[in-house]
């Protein structure tokens, strides 16, 4: 799993067991391989690449994934593997144009790792008229049904919950994809504990402008991508005469306000993803909402999405639904992904 925040490649060894109508899981080993500055730049700039450049990048990234997967297997002495379930890395996501691209999903991956690979989970949904995102909610339903809401704070914030018997999920707003950019201007990959944001001041006019973006008043299904951020967020932030710390403070407030708008009073909210470690953001969320926040183990915080993409792959191999029309807006529920043999 590789997300838009460009933290690195998340690898997890997980087991799944279906018993008495319920799925159970265990994360055995997990690790994040940080991206080098070379790969960060490549993946960040790829949105501007030509078709030929994207094809070359896809080939190189598939090789990169295979090296990291084989290294993870070797280091952890993993013997039994039913499948490698891989999300790849999203470069382009334009579902309104019927298009999404995740690199690293070439058939070559199965040959390089000598094992069955399940991948390319988003394309089929977009072809069926869906957003191709978010895909994690089927895992929220099957693995974490005891919580009212499952909130993920990664490059973007997304949430899922049950509404009248249907799983509803959508992207809320950008998170680390924006915060990390301004932390990098201050010399770090991220704003540790949100301390820079905490020391800044809210620019009220900027906050008002961010909260007024039309996306926030749209009804689900809806999803966000880097293209939307480049068009709608960065121009606004770069146009203000504010310090990076003030921008971090203002955007953190913006995130907290948008998150708080999603939850009913007294609800239980399971929060995972790297944004959980931004203690200032979590403080602001608690301050602006009347919910019970549940922060799980660090392994689940960091690897829940990798875990669920493993489940998506298993469901695909079983021929079972792994993509919900109520979430993505596709024509029907379906079993998404492609299975490649070595």
Description:
The chain is α/β, with parallel strands linked by helices and 342 residues long. It has two domains: 8-132 and 332-340, ATPase, nucleotide binding domain (Nucleotidyltransferase, domain 5, 2-Layer Sandwich), CATH 3.30.420; 137-298, 2-Layer Sandwich (Nucleotidyltransferase, domain 5), CATH 3.30.420.40. It has helices spanning 37-45, 51-75, 108-113, 123-127, 137-143, 176-185, 195-199, 204-211, 226-232, 234-238, 244-260, 279-288, 298-317, 325-328; strands at residues 8-19, 22-34, 84-86, 89-94, 99-103, 117-119, 149-153, 156-163, 166-174, 268-272, 292-294, 338-340. It has a five-stranded mixed sheet. A three-stranded mixed sheet has the order 3-6-12, covered by helices on one side. β10 (268-272), α12 and β11 (292-294) form a beta-alpha-beta unit. α11 crosses α12. It is globular, with a radius of gyration of 19 Å. The model has no long low-confidence stretch (mean pLDDT 96). GO terms for molecular function: ATP binding; kinase activity; phosphotransferase activity, alcohol group as acceptor.
Percent of residues in helices: 40-55%
- Structural class comes to alpha/beta
Count the beta strands.
Answer: 12
Strand order of the largest sheet: 9-8-7-10-11
How are the elements arranged and paired?
Elements: E1 8-19, E2 22-34, H1 37-45, H2 51-75, E3 84-86, E4 89-94, E5 99-103, H3 108-113, E6 117-119, H4 123-127, H5 137-143, E7 149-153, E8 156-163, E9 166-174, H6 176-185, H7 195-199, H8 204-211, H9 226-232, H10 234-238, H11 244-260, E10 268-272, H12 279-288, E11 292-294, H13 298-317, H14 325-328, E12 338-340
